Each structure stands twice: as C-alpha cells, then as structure tokens.
C-alpha cells in the first residue's frame, strides 16, 4: 500500500530495474577499481539484500520478522566472508544460499576492501541502531550503496523505504550518514518509479543534508543530472567521462614531467561509483549497464534477482 492507503502497483519494468540496480552496484565498483575481482563495496549490499529477502520469506510464510535484525545478521555473514571470522561475541547465523554461492566465486587475486567504516561498525557484538550506534560519529560514502537495496522493496509506503534505509545505515554509521542514506534511497526509488521525471524532486531531498556522504550524494546527483535526456549508454559514459578526460590530461602532463615530479593517479571511490551506476540503472533499467563486462558476482546477482521477484510478483 502507498502513503494514502491505496494498493500500490509495482513500477513499470520493475524486474528489469531490480536486476539492473544489483548489476549496477557491482559494475560501478568494478569500474572505479578497474579490476575484475569483486570487493566489499558490492558484497555487503548483496548480503543486506539477502537479509531483506529472508524477511520477505518469513512474511510469505505468515511469520512476522524484524527487517533490521535480518539485515544485521546478513551483514554479519558478509563480515565473516570479508574478515574471515565473525566479530567477537556476536551471533553467528547459519549460512544461506548466498554463502554457498560465494564459496564458488573465482577470485584471481583478492577481494578488494571497501569503506573501512563498514567493517569497523560491524565489528561489535551488538547491532547498531538509533541511540546505540556501533559507529558513533561515523559518516562516509560507505552508506550509499546500501541505500539502493533499501529502495528495492516495492508496494510499500515511502516511509517504509526510509525506515529500511535508516536501519541499514545505523548498522555501521551514525545519524548524519543515516539521513543521507534515507535521501539516497528515496532518490533511487523515485527513479525506479518515474525515471528521469523524478529528478525535479531530488534537490529538495538533498537540501537539509550535511557531511561527507551528503556531499558525495550531491555530486553524484549533479553528474547524473547532467546526463538526463541522453541515451542510457551515453548517460553512463557521461558520468565517467569527465574524470577519465581529466585523468588522460593528467597522464599526459605526468609523462612530460621528471619521474620525481610525477603525481599519483586519481583514485575513484568505489562506494560513490557503485551508487551512481545504481541510480543510472534505476532511471534507465538494464540498458544503462548493457555494455558492462561480466562480473564475478553475476551468478549471485541473477539468483538474488530471481528469488526476490518470486516473492514480490
């Protein structure tokens, strides 16, 4: 149901957009790292999505569940995957299908680290929540990819999307980042439902936000906004083009410098690019990532999408 109590319909092309957003998280992070091996940036959101999936499975069986707790337990399984063990004295939930699938993912060199505040916030025996954050004061771009997951649940009031985003953020971060995560989730959801037409309301969502994650979200929205009206592929290329042009110019300048004067390459933030491509995918669907290379996580993403849609449609 929506905010007025009416039965809500799933957005047009909902299945395609769910799949595209999940692919977009992996694609954006992979593009930022320029490496085929997966990383914590996209792995943690996929685990959080499985946490919501578990809550949906319970609901489908007529059993009430706590979505925040399901996401936390899923995040702990993700922590175990990334860190090699569970946090001291924390629950150790049993494996689910996603854990079995991850055990079969081929890693060529290493799983890339993501925002360190994510693992730091999960390294606790307690679940982070409002009033009792496990990452007190934490505010970073690591909350952005999970906002896309909170936006995936269809046929619920926007207030439910906000509740899920807040709970997901507090698993590792604090209040300021949680407010940004809520806005980021609402932006993704609006794009899923109304495409480019939703962009007119994004600035209002951004206005009250402060902090590191908020500034990154503003920059993403600005860059994506510059590509509105273009084809999905052109919009994708436009998002990355400016930085890549700057890098090409910098590489040219560096080549002309003495070795001692050369500067390090510009480092992209996988958390930022993961969310940005998820937003492009929410607007355009799978056409936004139609030219992406295969990801090591594609089989997991496909299975997650199929399980999600089996419960939502």
Automatic annotation (TrEMBL):
* Pfam families linked to this entry: ADP_ribosyl_GH
The record, for InterPro entries, names: Ribosyl_crysJ1 (IPR005502), Ribosyl_crysJ1_sf (IPR036705)
**SUPFAM superfamilies annotated for this entry?**
ADP-ribosylglycohydrolase
State the protein's name.
ADP-ribosylglycohydrolase family protein
Supply the source organism for this entry: Glutamicibacter soli
State the taxonomy lineage: Bacteria, Bacillati, Actinomycetota, Actinomycetes, Micrococcales
